[in-house]
Amino acid sequence: MAVGVMDIEEGAASLPGKTTFQVVMCSIIAAVGGLMFGYDIGISGGVTSMDTFLLDFFPHVYEKKHRVHENNYCKFDDQLLQLFTSSLYLAGIFASFTASFLCRRFGRKPIIMSASIFFLLGAILNYFARDLGMLIGGRILLGFGIGFGNQTVPLFISEIAPPRIRGGLNIAFQLLITIGILAASFVNYLTSTMKNGWRYSLGGAAVPALILLIGSFFIHETPASLIERGKDEEGKKVLRKIRGIDNIELEFNEIKRATEISNKVKSPFKELFTKRENRPPLVCGTLLQFFQQFTGINVVMFYAPVLFQTMGSGNNASLVSTVVTNGVNALATVFAVIMVDRLGRKFFLVEGATQMMATQLTIGALLLKYLHLVGPITSHAVPLIVLILICIYVSGFAWSWGPLGWLIPSEIYQLEVRTTGYFCAVAMNMVCTFVIGQFFLSALCRFRSGLFFFFAVMNVIMGLFAIFFLPETRGVPIEDMAEQRWKKHWHWKKYFKQN
């Protein structure tokens, strides 16, 4: 359902305030949580393709990788190897659940700080890992850092940002995810030929963790969190700082009204699942994260080096291809930062789904024709064409379902169920990422190129979902989302009492 420009402008203009240095600084510092997440996503695929890493922890996979007549699609099919990647996300589910409660009780800022500490400890343990137990233990600590960060950072930015630039600032989280992925691919390329280079790759995760830890001392708590916990005067003080004006009464009263409703809720999860008015954002926020993962993006982000090696590229060539892909990812996300508050959320979601569907179909067709069970692809042009297609695919994700999968769930819930509702979205992300990380290489072994056709179909479904079931949220104050959007949507309005 289209939303008029006039409606959007009125929603954005209803609350006075400037775009202040304080808001931008706090948003960028908090978004470093995305840098941690991106670094981990990017580092794991490169590390699992390194021979030195496989020799130290998975020698049987190393032997299988170098067998001349090994099935191309099954070279890396090993559950323990996949557990190295996916174990982080199991820990992340539990961590985001815990963070949803802690955020409400203690505020957003200390949870962001805790995320950096967990991630730092996980990086240190991975660097010194001597056996698989230490390796997985480090991944679990990293998972706690990711769970705390992903649960809290987008909420923090949505609550602190003015409505008119909320999308751009929140996508800074996704932008730093892409920068983290790109940095990880560079690190993997540099360390791939070093003795025990995998240690430097995994230990490098300590750098973004330290940046976030130091930066978290300089950010403000969000006004919504302060007022929700009864600190009205402190909330007003922060509002004046981040808005750059003295007249903050209108926004304060909006937050105060929402917190009064919020504080009456004793069981946020019960409220979320039993109150009909919460059904639309719960369904949409959770499905957005489900669809984000089933675009097939983590097939590329986790296993791009493995995928290129499967097509016959050498280790260095596969890592260079990954650097190129991740560079496109970062640049396309910059485009989203600039344009998302101009063109709106729905435009990017539909366009991105169409672009990804087309490229997945083409990649699947090329692999079906040229990549046989044994032996490399004989045509030198095909790996290059696949690289170009993956870059087109990644750009489509980077300006659509990547950033908007985090942005939209952070801005659609009412305050009383915001942290619990957003937990459901984050938990769905972690569950789906675990499934992809744990079973993709096994699925590739069994379904081969057909897997890309599956993801193409998923992109068709999610594009239709965006067209028919998602309201446009651009420029609307988050406390007014129900009144201005859900109650006016052709389908979701039936969940609200009609006046």
UniProtKB/TrEMBL annotation:
Pfam families the UniProt entry points to: Sugar_tr
Similarity annotation: Belongs to the major facilitator superfamily. Sugar transporter (TC 2.A.1.1) family.
Record InterPro entries: MFS_dom, MFS_STP/MST-like_plant, MFS_sugar_transport-like, MFS_trans_sf, STP/PLT_plant, Sugar/inositol_transpt, Sugar_transporter_CS
Domain Major facilitator superfamily (MFS) profile: 26-474
Membrane-spanning residues: 21-39, 80-103, 110-129, 169-191, 197-219, 282-306, 318-340, 347-368, 380-401, 422-444, 450-471
Protein name, per record: Major facilitator superfamily (MFS) profile domain-containing protein
Main location: membrane
Gene expressing this chain: A10p006780.1_BraROA
Membrane topology note: Multi-pass membrane protein
PROSITE patterns in alphabetical order: MFS (PS50850), SUGAR_TRANSPORT_1 (PS00216), SUGAR_TRANSPORT_2 (PS00217)
SUPFAM superfamilies: MFS general substrate transporter (SSF103473)
Keywords for this protein: Membrane, Sugar transport, Symport, Transmembrane, Transmembrane helix, Transport
Localization in the cell: Membrane
